[in-house]
Amino acid sequence: MSISLENVGRRFNRDWIFRNVNYNFTSGESYAILGSNGSGKSTLLQILNGSLGPSTGKVTYQLNDSVIPTEAIYEHLSLAAPYLEVIEDFSLTEMIDFHFQFKSLLPGISKADIIALLNLNTSPGKLIKYFSSGMKQRLKLALAFCSETPILMLDEPTSNLDTQGIDWYRDLVQRFAVDRLTIVCSNQLHEYDFCNHQLHIADYKKQPVTP
Ligand SMILES: Nc1ncnc2c1ncn2[C@@H]1O[C@H](COP(=O)(O)OP(=O)(O)OP(=O)(O)O)[C@@H](O)[C@H]1O
Description:
Elements lengths: L1 E11 L2 E12 L3 E5 L6 H8 L7 E8 L2 E3 L8 E4 L11 H8 L11 H7 L15 H13 L5 E5 L7 H14 L4 E6 L2 H4 L4 E4 L11
Parallel strand pairs: 3-8, 3-9, 6-7, 7-8
Antiparallel strand pairs: 1-2, 1-4, 4-5
The structure holds adenosine-5'-triphosphate.
Adenosine-5'-triphosphate binds next to helix 1.
């Protein structure tokens, strides 16, 4: 699996968030997209996952020598992000059943394993609306990590997690991120220190020199 960006830029109204991004993301590698608040990390991730188009340039997805159209890339990726909602009126089991209507479970993982991973064996019928913000975040992460997709995208993965939750996230990375194309948007080292590539948004903010 690979994602190639050619001269990608994005602006909102007159403001360029980034421009001239030329970058290749490939399977088995992990990438940290880094930058301060408001620098454009989530915007770039949304372009990479096909939910937002670039203002300039081209994004190409390739899987085993075939090109995947942008509108079909969601089938090949899992995303956990603060702006991705869980369905509050569902119970935990309903949410898991719903999610896995669209994605396959990782081989060797069952829905019961996900409940166990969340340490919620005693309350599978608990409604999501009664989950704490940290539990909701753990649920989003568990669903993303345990879906069988070649691409894993994580935007601010430890938001709302306490120290134990951060350790739990790091354990998920060790167990389930190997061999995938993993992309993490972050400005906290503990979220991305396992990544072997770093993309700094600031490098793509420089304006062309005008005479
Ligand atoms: N739909 C939109 N319309 C106008 N401006 C937008 C839109 N989406 C994002 N922006 C602006 O683009 C810039 C980059 O936002 P983005 O959310 O990508 O940053 P970020 O690096 O992910 O920030 P944070 O670390 O705070 O999550 C911000 O100035 C934001 O206000």
